[in-house]
Amino acid sequence: MPYMDGFEFASALKADSTLPFIPIIFLTVEEDGQDRAKALDAVGYVSKPLDDQALVALVRQHLA
Predict the structure, then answer these.
(1) What phi and psi values does residue 46 have, to the nearest 5 degrees?
(2) CA 37 to chain centre
(3) What domains sit in the chain, N to C, each tagged with a CATH number?
């Protein structure tokens, strides 16, 4: 993303009081990605290389 990374975007999204219902799932190769995802109250975390079944399962879980 040209102006911010995904963690900065997630932080901005969580700070917007009109959008508290949007679940965030992180896809990252960063070693501290899981810790950062938890700190930003993400609903899930999938590391790269991508496990597509894990991603689909997380999405399905949060679409209900």
Answers:
(1) -130, 125
(2) 6
(3) 6-63 (3.40.50.2300)
pTM: 0.68
Please state, in angstroms and rounded to a whole number, the distance separating the CA atoms of residues 64 and 57. 11
Rounded CA separation 6/44 (Å): 14
Per the listing, tokens 């949060």 go with 62
Scan for tokens 């679409």, then name that residue. Answer: 63
Report pLDDT digits (tens) over 1-55: 788 888 888 888 888 999 878 888 888 777 666 677 776 777 877 878 888 898 8
Residues in the chain: 64
Helices (H), the chain: 6-15, 33-39, 52-63
> Which of the 8 DSSP states describes residue 28?
E
